[in-house]
Design a protein that fits this description.
Keywords: Cell membrane, Membrane, Transmembrane, Transmembrane helix. The chain crosses the membrane at residues 6-29, 41-60. This protein is mainly alpha-helical. It has one domain (4-36, 43-67). 63% of the residues lie in helices and 11% in strands. The chain has helices spanning 14-35, 45-67, and strands at residues 4-7, 10-13. Helix 1 (14-35) packs across helix 2 (45-67). It is elongated and about 45 Å long. The relative contact order is 0.16.
Length: 71
């Protein structure tokens, strides 16, 4: 995994970039999950949102390692 991304002339930690993207995606999907009434049956909504964020962050990080050519 590479450590930094060069965005708009600024070096940013790669984990921070993937976390921000995952947070935006989780927030966008939050409204969709709130419309489904069955989502409240499985537990507290905050737990599901946190799990969704963690899975998206992991998926983006794993996908970036495969997709981007570095080295």
């Amino acid at each position: 995994m590479f450590e930094e991304l060069h965005l708009f002339g600024v070096y940013l930690p790669a984990a921070l970039v993937w976390a921000v993207i995952a947070g935006v995606m989780a927030h966008a999907l939050r409204g969709l999950f709130q419309r489904w009434s069955w989502s409240s049956v499985f537990g507290h909504a905050g737990v599901w949102e946190l799990a969704l964020f963690a899975l998206l962050w992991w998926g983006l990080t794993a996908g970036a390692d495969v997709f981007f050519n570095y080295g």
